[in-house]
Backbone:
């Protein structure tokens, strides 16, 4: 188990940025919360056992989901309250918490994420499928993930089998009305063009 991870202490500025999902808001910090390319998605407080920050956010009764990446936190609300009334409270909380050096994680997610992705790419797959899986992972990492992060979410590789790539959509993407369109018209087309063996892309994590 790694030491508790905290963000660098110092003056913190935060701004809110809308995402394609009207129920999700991205709070961008001038402070690093996770190393680049690493992210965590908590659909409920029970899943956030390794993140004191996420647990604190779930104490707000309108917070339904928390996603944390390199320098931002995406909050998905579970009530009809408007963001206009919620943003100031959440921004103030995040600023105070990070400036005070509050713990972000009790276990570094980077090693866990790398191990999970490696296991997904290999497992009991054939050598050819492992090679295809690695090509897909590289494309998702280099071309898709940066764009998805801009929208306050993330995409992770789950599996490849018989031409079908399964991915997991996290953060704002999990409930985004346009997620299915993006998946099929954008991500699927890219992978099919770059990796001819891919015939379809399906997603876990879409809640709409």
Residues:
């Amino acid at each position: 188990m790694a030491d508790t991870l905290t963000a660098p202490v110092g003056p913190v500025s935060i701004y809110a940025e809308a995402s394609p999902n009207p129920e999700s808001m991205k709070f961008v910090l001038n402070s690093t919360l996770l190393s680049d390319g690493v992210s965590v998605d908590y659909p409920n407080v029970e899943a956030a056992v390794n993140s004191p920050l996420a647990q604190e956010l779930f104490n707000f009764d309108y917070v339904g989901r928390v996603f944390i990446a390199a320098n931002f936190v995406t909050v998905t609300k579970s009530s009809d309250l408007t963001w206009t009334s919620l943003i100031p409270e959440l921004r103030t909380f995040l600023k105070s918490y990070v400036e005070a050096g509050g713990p972000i994680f009790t276990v570094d997610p980077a090693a866990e994420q790398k191990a999970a992705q490696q296991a997904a790419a290999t497992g009991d797959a054939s050598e050819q499928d492992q090679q295809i899986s690695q090509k897909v992972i590289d494309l998702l990492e280099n071309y898709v993930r940066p764009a998805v992060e801009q929208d306050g979410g993330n995409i992770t590789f789950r599996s490849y089998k018989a031409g079908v790539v399964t991915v997991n959509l996290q953060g704002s993407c999990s409930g985004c009305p346009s997620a299915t369109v993006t998946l099929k018209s954008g991500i699927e087309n890219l992978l099919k063009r770059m990796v001819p063996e891919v015939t379809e892309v399906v997603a876990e994590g879409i809640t709409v």
